[in-house]
Amino acid sequence: KNEHPGIFAQLLGRFSYLYGLIQDKLHPPPPHDGISVNARSSQGGLSSIEPDLPPLPPGVGRYIGWLDVLPVTNTRMIKVSFATPSAKLSKRLANAHVQKFIQRGLQAKFELTGEARRFLENEIHRVELELGQSEDALNQFRRTHNVVSLDDKDPTENSNIERLADLARRLTAAQADRITAEAEYHLVKSRDSDSLPAVLASSTIGALKNEVSQLEVKQAELGETFLPGSPQLQEVNSKLRQARAQLEREITRAISGSESLYLAAQSREDALRTEFEGQQAAVLDLKELSGQYLKLQQAVNANRSLYGTLLTRMHETDVVKGVQIASASIVDPAEEPWGPSEPQVALDLVFALIFGLAIGVSLSFVLENMDASLKTPDDVRKLLRLPTLGVVPNFAYSPRVGMRNFMGLRRRLTGSEGASSIVTARRGDVVRLVPHLSLHAEAYRGIRTSLLFCNPEKPLRTVLVTSSEAGEGKTSTTVNLAISLTSLGNKVIVVDADMRQARCHESLGIPAGPGLANVLRGEADLDQVVQRLSLRDGQVTSAMATRNGDLDLDILQSGSQVLDPSELIASPRMGAILETLCERYDIVLIDSPPIFPVTDAAILATIVDGVVLVVRGQRTGREITREALERLRFMKATVVGVILNGVDPESSEYNRYAYYFGSERVA
User: Fold this and answer.
1) CA 645: distance to chain centroid?
2) What is the pLDDT of residues 89-111, one digit of tens each?
3) Are residues 82 and 219 in the same domain?
């Protein structure tokens, strides 16, 4: 738009003309529907238009608002649609818009081809001038330096380089000869002529030296025999003088030859060096000329290549200008729509439903991940790697189920039904019991079965019932499990080892009294503090044990308050008490404090046959339960399983129990 404002103005004019043709079929627009370029730019529609262009003609803004152009995925097609109040008008506008687009594309191609040809003509003229100038410069260089060609394949340059290399080799050899001759010359000057190679190599000099040596020996022999003036001695002396004189002449001749050789070698070296330096300068000058020549030649070649390319492109442009093909074609003309495109109520409702479901599922997933409690036996098995001995529901979670069961229990508790088995409610110190068919009773019967058969070869005699923290139902679990075991005819005693917050007597509705703490401190005997409870006529009554009579359940309370319960439990007397109880009872159930934050439970876990861990379902955290289990395992305790207590019977995790939890018969 910035480079061709005239073309853009023509395009806007065509849009205005097209809009004017169909304006009579529409409702009259407002008196002034023009949209300024600055306003459209602020909306992001024509943000690239410069502010100095004139505003859009009336109606063009509305026309553009109707237009919608979308690419078709994985194709080179586009979808053009118009949304107007009239179905026929939308069809006509879509087809007319595409046809005008194709026509405008052909016209733009034609205009661009003409502009390209004019540009190529100007470039050809410019390159033609540059080519002539570069060729003139190359020819002038050749005339000035009297050369025809100085490229890499020129034989003149190659011969000069070869001659330079030959001179270098000859100069090196001359230098070696001169050095040898110079060494001999210095030997002569140092009076060491006997070491000269010429002297050493001369056979004449060697023979004369031998002759002189022989005459000197003979002279010495005759000197011992004859007098100095004797003829024999004079003859030998004369021959010796002649031999020495001839030897000196031969040595002098050899010395003069060495000096001549040295001077000749030096002269030859100087001549070759002068010739080498001259040839070297000539080669360097030729290299410099060759570089200048190559630059001029490359400029000529580049201009020729560009000139040829431009001529070829201009011929191609002429061919393209003669044959114009549209860059787009209509694949599927617009048809009259059968209904309005918006609003699509059904589709909007479907999207809203899907969006709501997605949000609900996501929220449920987030809440599920944020819940770090133990909910089901599968959680216990996967996280703690322990079996679940049983699941005890809490009907207080469900008002509907809880109220129905409560009303049924009330009628049963006030009726004349048979003996009951599980503690569920109390009023004061009188225990109310659930009949034999209660779901609570069934839950504890399942726990009883799991506990009795967890190790058939070595049945558990002493069982510690504990939890990771307070409030998880370990005391009620201990009492109810004891009642369930008693119903099988087992002799069972409940030992309340929680000397910090004793609750067993409250669960059974009996007053507090002396117990385990008193026995451990030596204040009472074991037989004096064991209480027996009768489970008859829907009530629990207590009496001091006499060890005679058919009584149902025994209990050893925690006794009086102490300051050091951990020390008492860790004493050897505690183990002795448990051994005594094992001799008298089939099963000893021990209710202990929670594992955290005291150590009473960990100490007791080391002296019992098995430990049962009570976990409040859907409330107790996984981490604290795992830490409690690690502490028990560190103490080498035998953890037989987990009881999930107080679970919500109507939660999604316990759908398989819904039939039993929600349809208990009320008599």
Assistant:
1) 44
2) 888 888 888 888 887 777 777 77
3) no
